[in-house]
Design a protein that fits this description.
With about 650 residues, the protein is mainly α. Helix content is about 45%, strand content about 5%. It has 2 domains: about 5-250 and about 265-275, Fumarase/aspartase (N-terminal domain) (Fumarase C, Chain B, domain 1), CATH 1.10.275; about 290-380 and about 435-510 and about 520-640, Fumarase/aspartase (Central domain) (Fumarase C, Chain A, domain 2). The strands form 6 sheets. The chain has a 3-stranded antiparallel β-sheet with strand order 6-8-9. The longest helix is centred in the C-terminal third of the chain and has 33 residues, at about 525-555.
Length: about 650
């Protein structure tokens, strides 16, 4: 078998380098057994595509496929050895031949042997049928793709005892955009995402259901930013495979044959390997961490726009202040906010001194680094944990058989007796606790971005506190026009919902399998709630971008309208000494390019009649899509030099 065997034809139509939030990702993404072969950026490029929507293809290295084949042979040898010797073994030595989930049952059936090679193959298939119990709406295609990639990464390390054919078919599903139908609810996160992964894996044997989305991530596909699952009904697994020229897996030949023509399609160990591991939870969390990083800097950008719109005092963001606090996240956020408000125009909206005895701003503005900063630190910690997880072997049991290594001895010197005839270890790397804990931690941190953003939105709308802007940022007639008033209601609702979603899932455990699995992680629930928190935060920040852009327009190109509304020069002076009749102050270049992009999909509104062309909810969605895709952030950063200063 060559490397070309695990490569899709799609790779020849894509550029060799993709970019995810500006970071390069080699295409195709090569999966191997090196310690850190997979990064969040690579996962995103495969799962949903790069900054231009180009999806990376995947292949597995030849060396890793050889390791995979070696572990599969070791499993086969162990099963045949057990088949030949188990019946005649003494009662006190029978356990030496047993490998959990390979030639024993699962969960509470762990002490019930499965004695023939043929039955071990059937056991692999049975687990997929009996464990496919998930319910609820299907996972988005991007989550399914990320999950398949994570199982592929686990298997490529040669510890799982699966055949190279299984890896090659997973590669083909990814590269040819075959996306299994996987209901989103039902996993307890230990022994991994059993039910969810069963639904996914059924497609490999021509069962279950799947979509073929050859134009993914085109308009007919469900991606992270879609609120509605617009996909057609999925097709049966065998039909989905046939539609792209693929065939289901076929099982190995059993040395003692099968009892019927209905031969299993999986080898021993493959069923439990496919279903063990918190891969759905890790996939959800990994995508949310990437989104969280975009949200964090976007919150800094939105806050910088609000800071200028209210004539906020930028002195509070000087490095000397934040170095005194010593928190890295806080210092980084302060620097980024300052870079976004930097303006070469000395008469710009960058206000470093007090105006009308306003010596300091409200917390929602002044304390942005102190609130955004801890969220940044939480994201960094979550990334470290999840990047370890997506590169981990999360299977059970694990096979340790290096090439040419015959050193394994069945005797355990610590107990002075044999414990197993095979270098196969049953443990619990599938347990989702690390994923669940950081998901709970991260959803709390990200929810704070929405909480403080909602307060900045209200500040912009409050005619008594927004320093000379019209109430509700309305250019219409008081009483007749509501302006942007109700956008804050939506933001408040989403912030309130986040408080419920932030209840920790990982501190809960309901034992399963007749108490054999007596402490479970609930990691997937935490990760699903994290994904919803991310969406809610995106919507709140989109509202702030809309309101801040409207406010900045009043300060600059719509200043004459503002003066007319206020009946003169207004009660709040223009920063930096500009007088009536002089050109209006300017917005900093990073915020100006962002403001212009917002107005391209969400134009300035003079009166409520202006909402007819695009209702507020459509405006929120349009700006949210710009935000979530990283478009606004990349535009602002492109104005800056690599040092973070203006070009």
């Amino acid at each position: 078998m060559t490397e070309r065997d695990s490569r899709s034809d799609h790779s020849s139509f894509s550029p060799s380098v993709l970019r995810v939030m500006g970071k390069p990702v080699a295409n195709p993404v090569v999966i191997d057994h090196s310690p850190d072969c997979l990064t969040l950026e690579k996962l995103v490029a495969v799962a949903r595509g790069d900054d231009e929507g180009r999806v990376a293809s995947v292949r597995v290295s030849q060396t890793s496929l050889e390791r995979v084949a070696r572990s599969a042979r070791k499993i086969e040898e162990a099963i045949l050895t057990a088949q030949e010797n188990f019946a005649a073994a003494s009662p006190e030595s029978k356990h030496l031949f047993l490998i959990y989930g390979v030639n024993t049952g699962f969960g509470i059936n762990r002490d019930k042997p499965v004695e023939t090679f043929a039955d071990c193959c059937k056991l692999s298939e049975n687990i997929l049928f009996s464990h496919a119990t998930a319910v609820g709406p299907p996972l988005p295609s991007e989550v399914v793709r990320a999950t398949m990639l994570l199982r592929l990464r686990t298997f490529a390390q040669g510890r799982s005892g699966v055949r190279p054919d299984l890896l090659n078919l997973l590669v083909e599903l990814l590269n040819k955009r075959v996306h299994p139908w996987v209901p989103s609810q039902g996993s307890v996160g230990s022994s991994g995402d059993l039910c969810s992964l069963s639904h996914l894996s059924l497609v490999l044997i021509g069962e279950g259901q799947a979509w073929v989305e050859t134009d993914y991530p085109g308009p007919d596909c469900t991606v992270s930013n879609s609120d509605v699952d617009a996909r057609r009904q999925p097709m049966p697994g065998a039909e989905a495979l046939a539609a792209v020229g693929l065939k289901p897996l076929t099982g190995p030949l059993a040395p003692n044959g099968f009892e019927s023509d209905d031969a299993p399609r999986l080898a021993p160990k493959e069923g439990i390997a496919l279903t063990n591991g918190a891969s759905v939870a890790a996939a959800l969390s990994a995508l949310s961490i990437h989104d969280g990083e975009v949200l964090l800097s976007s919150a800094n950008l939105a806050g910088a726009m609000t800071l200028q719109a209210i004539g906020g005092i930028t002195r509070a963001f000087e490095p000397i202040v934040h170095e005194a606090r010593r928190h890295t996240g806080q210092m980084k956020c302060a620097r980024e906010i300052m870079s976004f408000v930097e303006n070469p125009d000395p008469g710009g909206l960058d206000n470093r001194a007090s105006v009308l005895f306003q010596t300091q701003d409200d917390y929602s503005v002044r304390a942005m680094p102190q609130v955004h900063g801890p969220a940044l630190s939480a994201i960094a910690h979550a990334r470290e944990t999840i990047e370890a997880e997506i590169n981990a072997v999360t299977d059970n049991p694990l096979i340790f058989c290096e090439e040419g290594d015959e050193s394994y001895q069945p005797n355990d010197t610590r107990v002075g007796r044999p414990v197993s005839l095979f270098p196969i270890y049953s443990a619990a790397n599938f347990h989702g606790e690390p994923v669940g804990l950081v998901s709970d931690y991260l959803k709390l941190a990200l929810s704070e971005l929405a909480s403080i953003s909602e307060r900045r939105i209200q500040l912009l709308l409050d005619g008594k506190r927004n320093r000379g802007l019209p109430a509700n940022l309305s250019g219409g007639r008081g009483g007749l026009d509501s302006g942007f008033m109700i956008l804050q209601y939506t933001a408040a609702s989403l912030v309130s919902e986040n408080k419920v979603l932030c209840h920790p899932s990982s501190c809960d455990s309901i034992p399963t399998s007749s108490d054999a699995e007596d402490h479970v992680a609930m990691a997937t629930t935490a990760a699903r709630h994290l994904a919803q928190v991310v969406k809610n935060v995106s919507n709140v920040l989109a509202i702030e971008f809309i309101c801040a852009s409207q406010a900045l327009a009043f300060r600059t190109e719509q200043r004459e309208l503002l003066l007319a509304l206020l009946g003169g020069s207004g009660s709040w002076p223009i920063p930096n000494g500009r007088k009536e009749g002089e050109p209006p102050p300017s917005v900093s270049p990073p915020c100006k390019v962002c403001m212009d992009q917002v107005f391209s999909v969400c134009p300035f509104v003079t009166a409520d009649a202006g909402f007819r062309s695009a209702l507020p909810h459509q405006r929120i969605q349009a700006v949210r899509d710009l935000l979530s895709s990283g478009t606004l952030l990349l535009l602002a950063r492109n104005v800056l030099s690599p040092s973070g200063n203006l070009k």
